[in-house]
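Need fresh eyes. Consider my entry:
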Amino acid sequence: MAAAGNSGPCTDCVNYPAAYDTTIAVSATAEDDSLAGFSSTGPEVELAAPGKDIYSTIPGGYATFSGTSMACPHVSGVGGLLMAGDYTNTEARRRLRGTAEDIGLSDNEQGYGLVDAEGALPIGEAGTVSTNQPDRSTWRTVSFEQRYDDPVVLMKPLSFEGGQPAHVRLRNVASDGFEFQIEEWAYLDGSHISETIHYTVIEAGTYTLASGTTVEAGRVEANHTFTSASFSASLDRTPVVLTESQTRNGGHEIVTRNREVTTDGFDVRIQEEEGRDGGHKTEAIGYLAVEPGTDVLGSTTIEAGRTANTVTDDWEAIGFEGTYDATPLFAAGIQTFDGPDTAALRYRSLGQSGVETFVEEERSADDETNHTTERVGYLVLGSEGLL
């Protein structure tokens, strides 16, 4: 990064070394996002940053200065944080460009836009895994693209290639990755054919996306009885809440179930298979709450929605609000507890405009799988990679 120069008002006057194509030339803006009058401009300008009346350090104290040399460190700091997170210089440059905010200046004045520190720094990542389950003892490892302080992992629902009831179980969620398996219920043999699962990783915390959507990721301790979780964020709209155990403290097979999802929080519990659902050790339950609608998370589209209270053990089609250029990633969870039998979701026919899902009960006690209507919450991510 380099300061574009302080020759303004002028045109086509970016100084060297900022004018080199290997350098990010940074122009300066004022507090109201107007171009600072002193800032050099030209086709070499790549990003803009605050550069007028910047309070900063001097030997022995502090002072206020103006100049593109005060703007440039804003961009350098964000770039340094990206590269500390294992971005290459080329990847960091692309990320800075892709997340910059258009503040209405000309390309020669702002380049790709005003640097957006919050938007540039990834809060998570998403990906796809296709694998089988040879036996109950096999665990697969997913390594993160970057390290996290407190990651929350959601990996649900399972596709529907194999008809035996199954779901995903996680363990050892750590700063650099996690382990998972396709977990069949105890009455089955534990071997399962290949399925496709999408996963989402979000650093625990509260975030506001580009169009104002609130996202919160966190953890709550829960067992086989319902536990209430309260959001840290102040939400305007009832969110979609996905939950999944991050630990394997109890060896019996489990899923999580939600109820009473409101703008303040939700209830969550663990379900074991029927006949055994009388007690389970406390597990750390990860949750992801996203206000409904379509927004941008990092450089990808995120869509959150809820069905009516109509999803049963029959397949039901969900149409996406957006249409995606490629097959998106899909995550979903039951939002209600209308049917108490142990159940989870499965999906099929995922495409650019929709998906099908149904509520799958396990059959340890009997072969009956009828399930009353439930409301399903879902997330759609437009692409894999860092978010």
